[in-house]
Design a protein that fits this description.
It contains 7 helices and no strands. It is mostly helical and about 130 residues long. The protein has one domain.
């Protein structure tokens, strides 16, 4: 997936996506930009491997930071945190699949317990990013 992430950057797709995101945001404050990239990462990692998600979203986060006039580090940290929040499905991470089989969980147990956990982690991440960076 590293070549795909490089392709996103080299072809200009990261720049196009970053411009579209900035134009779609009602208020482009640093915390809003961070929240958008966190939500994108958390949503995408539910269906795609977290390493692949990070490889694809890192150039987008870099372009978003440049376009918004923000330092790139907080957004890359947001990508790292967002890609680790794969609690929503049993196929989001291989550990989820192992736990599902060993503990007898069903598919519907993951969203029921994972969604509140994801929201809690997102709020905590935004709070920490606000304190440390903005």
């Amino acid at each position: 997936m590293i070549p795909l992430g490089q392709a996103v950057q080299d072809t200009g797709a990261a720049h196009v996506i970053a411009n579209a995101l900035i134009d779609a945001m009602p208020v482009g404050g640093p915390l809003t930009v961070t929240a958008v990239i966190l939500l994108m990462a958390a949503t995408l990692t539910t269906f795609v491997d977290n390493v692949s998600t990070a490889a694809v979203l890192s150039p987008v986060a870099s372009g978003l930071a440049t376009r918004a006039g923000l330092p790139v580090e907080p957004l890359l940290i947001a990508v790292a945190i967002g890609t680790s929040l794969d609690f929503l499905t049993p196929f989001g991470h291989h550990n989820n699949t192992v736990v599902m089989g060993a503990a007898g969980y069903r598919f519907r147990d993951f969203p029921k317990l994972g969604l509140p956990l994801i929201f809690l982690c997102l709020l905590t991440a935004l709070l920490v990013e606000r304190v440390l960076f903005f």
